[in-house]
């Protein structure tokens, strides 16, 4: 019985592979080896760009673009960062004076950012 099961296992691999896939085990192994020998080129990945969807739109966008071109991108971004920080401080002080919590303050800052985008300040 034990000898019979070993024989049937080898016959099982051969007959099952031939009946289901139409190929024997050795052919499948050679195809797998050939496929692994091929050098696959990695897919080209584009870097995601964080861009403003309203870039170039808004009332103040032309002024912002001209100012950025005049003073340079690096210096412009430094000034913009300082202006945003000052505006956030003003919002924070306002929230302290009216007794608003941190969640409401964050909501006001998000609204200020959306308004800045739609007006063109973040162009």
Automatic annotation (TrEMBL):
<protein>
    <recommendedName>
        <fullName>Protein PROTON GRADIENT REGULATION 5, chloroplastic-like</fullName>
    </recommendedName>
</protein>
<dbReference type="GO" id="GO:0009055">
    <property type="term" value="F:electron transfer activity"/>
</dbReference>
<dbReference type="GO" id="GO:0009773">
    <property type="term" value="P:photosynthetic electron transport in photosystem I"/>
</dbReference>
<dbReference type="GO" id="GO:0009644">
    <property type="term" value="P:response to high light intensity"/>
</dbReference>
<dbReference type="InterPro" id="IPR037497">
    <property type="entry name" value="PGR5"/>
</dbReference>
<dbReference type="GO" id="GO:0009507">
    <property type="term" value="C:chloroplast"/>
</dbReference>
């Amino acid at each position: 019985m034990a000898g019979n099961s070993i024989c049937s296992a080898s016959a099982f691999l051969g007959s099952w592979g031939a009946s289901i896939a139409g190929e024997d085990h050795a052919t499948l192994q050679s195809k797998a080896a050939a496929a692994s020998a091929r050098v696959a080129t990695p897919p080209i990945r584009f870097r995601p760009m964080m861009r403003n969807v309203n870039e170039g739109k808004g009332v103040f966008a032309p002024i912002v673009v001209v100012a950025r071109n005049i003073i340079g991108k690096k210096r412009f971004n430094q000034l913009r960062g300082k202006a945003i920080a000052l505006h956030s401080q003003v919002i924070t002080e306002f929230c302290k004076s009216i007794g608003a919590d941190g969640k409401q303050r964050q909501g006001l800052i998000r609204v200020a950012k959306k308004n800045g985008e739609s007006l063109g300040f973040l162009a």
